[in-house]
Amino acid sequence: MRNRRNFIKSLGVAGLGLSGSLLLHKDIARTKKINISNPSENTFTFETFKIDMRGNKIKIQRLKVPFIKEYLDGEIFIEMISIPNGTFQMGSPETEAKRLPNESPQHQVTITSFFMSKYPINQEQWQIVASKFPKINIPLNPNISKFKGKYLPVESISWYEASEFCARVSQKTAKNYRLPSESEWEYACRANTNTPFYFGETITTNLANYNGNSNYGEISTGVWRGQTTQVDSFPGNAFGLYDMHGNVWEWCADDWHSNYNFAPSDGIIWKSESKSLYKVLRGGSWNIGARRCRSASRYALIPDSKDNFLGFRVVY
Question: Among residues 223, 214, 217, 211, which one has the least CA distance to residue 249?
Answer without folding.
Answer: 211
